[in-house]
Design goal:
It is a single chain. The protein has 10 helices and 6 strands, in the order ααααααβαββαβαββα. The radius of gyration is 29 Å and the shape is rod-shaped. A hairpin with a 2-residue loop joins strand 2 and strand 3. A 6-stranded mixed β-sheet has the order 2-3-1-4-5-6, with helices on both faces. The chain folds into 2 domains: about 140 residues, Up-down Bundle (Four Helix Bundle (Hemerythrin (Met), subunit A)); about 170 residues, P-loop containing nucleotide triphosphate hydrolases (Rossmann fold). Helix 4 runs antiparallel to helix 5. By secondary structure, the protein is of the alpha/beta class. This is GTPase ObgE/CgtA. One of its GO terms (molecular function) is GTP binding. Pfam families: NOG1, NOG1_N. Keywords: GTP-binding, Nucleotide-binding.
Length: about 350
């Protein structure tokens, strides 16, 4: 998405080095003495400007227009690095491109109009102006390099697939479930926030492509207070989910009481009221009193009792998933009241 970003020094070195090489090619050519010095320095300035401009343009052109991206990617970029900051940085490069274009014309003309003995001094003035312009976009180049590093692992989403999002507190078994029903192999460990970022698995059911997304741990608190990792999950749910697999840890060994897990479910259901939810009560192999769970069951028909680590109940989940239909969304009509 974002190409390799040079530092200001690297950008100037590339431009000035190429300018010198092109200027040196003229030294061996037969040019009238009163023109030769001017031609050499003009070539040096023009080539340097063009090389720097070409690099800036390649960066600007390589970054897609953010508004043209799927809303999932727009929000993902905004959460990760900031859409406004990205636009500002690209605007800085565009500004530099325009100024260097002006300097190329200005100093090329100035060298041609002045005597040959002044050409070198004018070339040095041009280089000073060019260096000043490039120096002013250091913060923009630094930001784009930061954005490149942070967006390089941006998930590849199949927007045509039926998408199931796994949600629930940390350590309730989301990653284990993803591994059971797809070929994905996310790291599974008994530590809070094991799942970093968004992990995706794929499977086929009756010639239908199913995409299953394992979200970061969602915490039971207002969305506006969530951190970046938690917001990634909200983005996935809002723009991608055709259904939600909400996982309860029935044993409460995840460290969160069932009351808290239930409250999180209600928050998700309220926000994403048009998305169907399948309720999974996991770690049933560790539960001694199953009747205790009845108070947390709102929809018995869509509730499944499983042990993801043992593979129990996976067939029932697959049957439910197979019946999920893709939700047709008109993103132009979506609002952003939760941002």
């Amino acid at each position: 998405m974002i190409p390799t970003i040079p530092t200001p020094d690297e950008l100037l070195d590339k431009g000035f080095s190429r300018g010198k090489k092109q200027a040196d090619l003229l030294r061996s050519q037969k040019i009238p003495k009163h023109l030769k010095g001017k031609r050499i320095e003009e070539r040096r300035v023009v080539t340097s400007c063009q090389v720097i401009k070409d690099k800036l343009k390649s960066i600007i052109d390589a970054v897609p227009e953010i508004e043209s991206l799927h809303p999932f990617y727009q929000d993902y970029i905004d959460i990760t690095v900031g859409v406004d900051d990205m636009k500002q940085a690209l605007g800085g490069l565009n500004w530099a491109y325009g100024i260097i274009t002006q300097l190329e014309k200005e100093y090329g003309a100035k060298i041609r109009k002045n005597p040959s003995e002044k050409a070198t001094a004018i070339q040095k003035q041009a280089y000073g102006r060019i260096a000043s312009v490039v120096g002013k976009i250091k913060k923009d180049l630094d930001f784009l390099d930061f954005a490149k590093q942070n967006l390089r692992n941006m998930p590849t989403i199949d927007f045509e697939a039926t998408t199931i999002v796994i949600a629930g507190f940390p350590n309730v078994g989301k990653s284990t479930l993803l591994r059971q029903i797809t070929e994905a192999e996310p790291q599974v460990a008994n530590y809070p926030f094991t799942t970093k970022g968004i992990q995706i698995g794929h499977t086929e059911m009756h010639w239908k492509h199913i995409q299953i997304i394992d979200t970061p741990g969602l915490l039971d608190r207002p969305i506006l207070e969530m951190n970046d990792i938690e917001m990634n999950a909200i983005v996935a749910l809002e723009h991608l989910a055709d259904a939600i697999l909400f996982i309860f840890d029935a044993s409460e060994t995840c460290g969160f009481h069932l009351d808290n897990q239930y409250n999180l479910l209600k928050q998700i259901e309220k926000i994403f009221s048009d998305v169907p939810v399948i309720y999974l009560f996991n770690k049933m192999d560790l539960v001694e009193d199953a009747e205790y769970l009845n108070q947390y069951i709102d929809d018995e028909e869509n509730s499944i009792f499983i042990s993801a680590i043992e593979g129990e109940g996976i067939d029932k989940i697959n049957k439910k998933i197979n019946r999920i239909k893709k939700i047709e969304r008109n993103f132009d009509e979506e609002d952003d009241e939760y941002y």
